[in-house]
Request: fold
Amino acid sequence: MDNSPTDPLKKANAKTWDGLSRLAFATDWNPETAIDWSRPIELGAIKEGWINILQYFYEGEWQGLEIIQRLMNKAAHLFDTGEMVTYYSTQCYDESKHLFVFRTYLHKLNAPPAKQKAFDPLVFLATRGPLPVERWILATYFTETLAATIFQRTLELDAVDATGKEMIRLMLKDESRHIAGTRLGVQTLMAHSGRFKTALLKLWWRLFVRLAVREVRKLKHHGDQVGMDPEAILQKTFAKMKGLEEFDGKFLSDDFARGFLQGSAAAGESEPEPRTHQGDGHPEPASSTSAS
Reply:
């Protein structure tokens, strides 16, 4: 066997593109059989708020799948890294599973997916104009981390039914790997960005993250119905993004980001990097014991 540093069959881990692909292969799950769809779903008072939050998630998964398909080849060529296409193809497959289970679950609630326009300006801002690959990677770091944070909170809610939690738990395993992939993407981006490009991306990031935060805060009414505080979710999200020294210094150092990080620190929400299952290198959600 080839034991060179580029050997794709060396031990899989979340530190390389091929390693992430192999983790995806090893942890695949069937959306039709991994979840017991025969169970009745009883949600009680949280039903309206939960459905509205899921509608936003469905739209986010749809937009995420479309953007990955549009930009993954451009990213591989831009950074001269063919392994990125293999990894992002596995993420496309993950997003298709997530869309399927969200759609199935919402139909069981007699609330089929409806078009949400909240993501349209964010998608436009993240993919149109100059530097689309770089902006997509940065935007995805926020959105994937936000999704994982909300998923972790969902698993802590007694009012969410067993089918919903089973669905979320499976998706959270995928999201943890996606975050690891996005962190690798951010590191790749930073290594290929000079001073001028970084300055442009910092200006863009400040606009994007403010619009994204505004959209999350619009969900407060639905969050209150379910038991999710948007401000607490945002604080945890920013805390989870922290940990890449160069990224922190350039993109999380302004007053806007520091406000969330300080709020998280005050609440005792120190977030480590995603852990790995002992011995197998699989990414594991940080901080939430409920997700185990």
